[in-house]
Amino acid sequence: MVKVNVLDHPLIKIKLSVLRDKNTNHTEFKANLNEIASLMVYELLSDYKPKEICIETPTNSKTIGKCFDKEIVIVPILRAGIGMVEGIKLLLPQARVGHIGLYRDEKTLESHEYFYKMPNVPKDSVIIVVDPMLATGGSAIDAINKLNKDGFSNIKMVSIVGAPEGINNLKQKVKNVDLFIAAIDEKLNKDGYIIPGLGDAGDRIFGTK
Ligand code: PRP
Ligand code: URA
Hints:
- The chain is of the alpha/beta class.
- It has one domain (2-206): Rossmann fold (3-Layer(aba) Sandwich), CATH 3.40.50.2020.
- It has helices at 10-20, 26-44, 85-91, 138-149, 164-173, 201-206, and strands at residues 2-6, 51-56, 62-67, 72-78, 96-97, 99-104, 111-117, 126-130, 133-134, 155-162, 177-184, 187-188, 194-195.
- The strands form three sheets. Strands 1, 4, 5, 6, 7, 8, 9, 10 and 11 form a nine-stranded mixed β-sheet that branches.
- The protein starts with a strand and ends with a helix.
- The structure holds 1-O-pyrophosphono-5-O-phosphono-alpha-D-ribofuranose and uracil (URA).
- The site of 1-O-pyrophosphono-5-O-phosphono-alpha-D-ribofuranose has 22 residues, from strand 4, strand 6, strand 9, helix 4 and helix 6.
C-alpha cells in the first residue's frame, strides 16, 4: 500500500511558492529546495521509534535517552534528487547516501537506469528516496522496485510536487511505501510536465537552461 502524506506546514508552502516562481534563480532555488527537504524529513521522522538508552550526565546521574537503532540511507534519484540531500543531512548527518541514476526519455517519458550504488547496510535500514518531481511516476516506481529487488523494504519517498497521474501509477505499481509530498498539482501537460509545477527541476537546480 502507498500511504500519501501531503505536508501542509506553512513554511513548506512558502518555500514551495519560491520554487514555483519562474524568477527564482538557481542559487535561491537550490537553497529553498534543501530547506524544504529538511522540513519534510523532520515531518517524516515524527513516527520514528528511537531505541531507549541509558545516559550518564555530567552531574553524576543517569537518565533514559533515545538514539537511532537503524541505519538511514538517503537515495537521491539523479540528477534532481541531489538537490535535496544537503538539507536532509543537516538533520541526519550520520545518514549514508546511495544513488540511483535514471533519466526520462523526452519522447516516450519512460525512465531508463544508468547508475545504481547503495552502501553496504542491513536490509532493514530506513531508505529515504528523494526526487523533487513525481510526474508520470515512472522514475519513482523504477527506483523503488529496484530497491525492493535489492532487498530493501522500509522505503519512504520524499517529493516536492506530484501529478495525480503519477501518484495513481505509484499506488498501482509499488507496495508498502510512505510518500511525503508538498503538493499534488492539477495534471501533466502533453510533454509530461507537471502543471502548474515548477518547471524542469534538474535544470533549475543546476542552472543548465
Ligand atoms: C525528472 C525528475 C524525475 C523525473 C520525474 O528527471 O527529476 O526524476 O523527471 O518524471 P516521471 O515521474 O515522469 O518519471 P529527468 O529524467 O528529467 O532527469 P534529471 O533529473 O537528470 O534532469
Ligand atoms: N520532471 C521535471 O523536472 N519537471 C516536471 O514537471 C516533470 C518531470
